[in-house]
User: Which sequence fits this backbone?
């Protein structure tokens, strides 16, 4: 019996200790709240909440932003511009050569019998002021018949004659004041190359894109000449020859109608490549086509292209991107973009010995000073092909922009709109303080254990209004609500009104002290803000009335806590 009594006393002591520990935990939570250190406020969990705000201004703003993003991403960027396609730079090689003008019955000057078609000096204004020299393509100084991606077109020539009068050697201590002095006073007179603008330039090229596995030559695809002169922005390269029998399947000229470009009549595609005259090439590169003086004879300060020369770059751009082609276009095109570079001159020197090979001191040679147009062919452009990875990147970008548009409308509604207080209540719902809930729950449970009854959440209510309604339901009538001239009923209605306002924001100025919202009617001055706050506090009698009843309920809980401590200390 004594052992049984000792065991029961030990169990009661252990129960009282565990209950006391639980009570200390509750009190520590209350103590933390008194010191205003609430971890629930410091580390809240924020989760999205979807709210249907019935405001056409916000709804239309969000819809218009989404439509604009859809049009930009899917219609313009993806379908029209093909930004979802994989791109690769096209690498190519080319060659250029020049031929003198021939009669229209000849396809090329390389034919055995072909008449030249030079214009007479009377039709060449620059030949009236200076001497002109007629040269064929084989006679042009500083030029070979076939070159690579650079071509020099001579426009003026000056011959400088010199005789060696001194040779650096041991007798003169390897020092000479002049080695090759001029021998004639009239050296250096310039002579223009007659009718150089009627010469034809032939351009041929091939390309390859390794990753996309695309390759080809110029004769397989349609070409264009691009002009910034305003005469014609994009001139096609017509086919004016019959296709070779062996290339009928791949030649772009097979079965094509014979058409010409009106503004640039020399532009055409032939067996040896795309042909264009020097005259039309300069017209394409001319940025001021309204000037009556041709570009070669036009003076810019003290500079003249025919006399001093210049550098002209032709950018050869490959492309196969067609508008409104989701999977990319298989039709490849190329475009020539000619433009002059800001070079002051372009010249070459060709040395010709008078008696063949160098004979030693006293020998005479002629130095040919050649000015002209240096033409450079540069390969640019990209080829495109369908790729799922790039498509997913484009779609991901569109989804991010759609979310950004929604965030922008949220920011405007919560920060800038006149009704931002209502929008904030609907969008940002603040929950109860779960530290307070845990403390109330533990106190109610300890109270039930101390009274020797089972704790039931359905009966032991933690909030004032829930406890009031439970007691009325337990009594079977609402007489308690009418005590003290209906004060309990008024407090209950105010609590329900406050809870509903937190959900639908019908009365955004009666939502409780826990929610601090930005008020659009507040003034800019801090002193005026504080005065307005005091006026609103005095005016809000509903909040004051409800606060008094809540304080009474909290005092009741504090009395319960004191009673529990007294019971545990016995």
Assistant:
């Amino acid at each position: 019996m004594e052992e049984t009594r000792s065991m029961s006393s030990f169990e009661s002591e252990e129960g009282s200790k565990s209950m006391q520990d639980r009570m200390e935990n509750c009190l520590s939570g209350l103590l933390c709240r008194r010191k205003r250190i609430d971890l629930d406020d410091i580390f809240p969990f924020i989760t999205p909440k979807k709210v249907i705000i019935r405001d056409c201004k916000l709804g239309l703003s969000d819809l218009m932003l989404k439509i604009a993003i859809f049009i930009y991403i899917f219609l313009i960027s993806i379908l029209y511009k093909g930004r979802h396609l994989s791109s690769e730079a096209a690498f190519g090689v080319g060659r250029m050569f020049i031929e003198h003008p021939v009669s229209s019955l000849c396809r090329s000057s390389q034919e055995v019998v072909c008449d030249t078609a030079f214009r007479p000096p009377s039709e060449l204004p620059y030949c009236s002021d200076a001497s002109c020299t007629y040269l064929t393509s084989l006679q042009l100084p500083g030029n070979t018949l076939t070159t690579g991606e650079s071509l020099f077109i001579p426009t003026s020539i000056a011959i400088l004659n010199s005789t060696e009068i001194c040779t650096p050697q041991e007798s003169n201590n390897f020092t000479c004041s002049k080695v090759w002095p001029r021998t004639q006073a009239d050296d250096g007179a310039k002579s223009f190359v007659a009718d150089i603008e009627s010469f034809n330039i032939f351009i041929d090229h091939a390309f390859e894109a390794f990753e996309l596995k695309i390759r080809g030559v110029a004769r397989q695809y349609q070409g264009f000449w691009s002009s910034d002169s305003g005469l014609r922005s994009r001139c096609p390269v017509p086919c004016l020859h019959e296709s070779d029998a062996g290339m009928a399947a791949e030649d772009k000229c097979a079965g094509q109608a014979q058409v010409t470009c009106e503004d640039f009549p020399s532009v055409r595609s032939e067996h040896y490549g795309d042909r264009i005259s020097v005259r039309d090439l300069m017209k394409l590169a001319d940025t001021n086509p309204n000037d009556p003086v041709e570009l070669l004879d036009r003076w810019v300060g003290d500079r003249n292209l025919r006399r001093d020369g210049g550098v002209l770059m032709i950018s050869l751009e490959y492309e196969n991107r067609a508008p409104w082609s989701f999977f990319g276009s298989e039709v490849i095109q190329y475009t020539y973009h000619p433009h002059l570079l800001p070079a002051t001159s372009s010249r070459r020197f060709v040395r010709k010995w008078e008696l063949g090979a160098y004979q030693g001191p006293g020998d005479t040679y002629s130095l040919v000073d050649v000015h002209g147009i240096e033409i450079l062919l540069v390969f640019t452009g990209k080829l495109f092909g369908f790729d799922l990875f790039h498509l997913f990147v484009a779609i991901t970008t569109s989804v991010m922009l759609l979310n950004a548009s929604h965030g922008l409308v949220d920011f405007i509604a919560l920060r800038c709109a006149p009704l931002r207080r209502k929008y904030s209540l609907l969008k940002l719902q603040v929950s109860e303080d779960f530290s307070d809930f845990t403390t109330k729950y533990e106190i109610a449970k300890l109270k039930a254990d101390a009274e020797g009854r089972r704790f039931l959440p359905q009966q032991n209510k933690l909030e004032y209004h829930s406890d009031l309604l439970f007691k009325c339901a337990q009594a079977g009538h609402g007489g308690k609500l009418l005590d003290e001239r209906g004060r309990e009923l008024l407090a209950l209605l105010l609590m329900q009104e406050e809870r509903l306002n937190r959900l639908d924001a019908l009365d955004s100025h009666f939502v409780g002290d826990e929610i601090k919202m930005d008020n659009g009617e507040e003034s800019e001055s801090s002193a005026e803000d504080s005065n307005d706050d005091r006026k609103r506090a005095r005016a809000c009698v509903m909040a004051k009335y409800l606060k008094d009843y809540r304080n009474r309920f909290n005092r009741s809980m504090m009395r319960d806590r004191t009673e529990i401590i007294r019971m545990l200390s016995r």
Notes: The first strand starts at residue 86 and ends at 89.
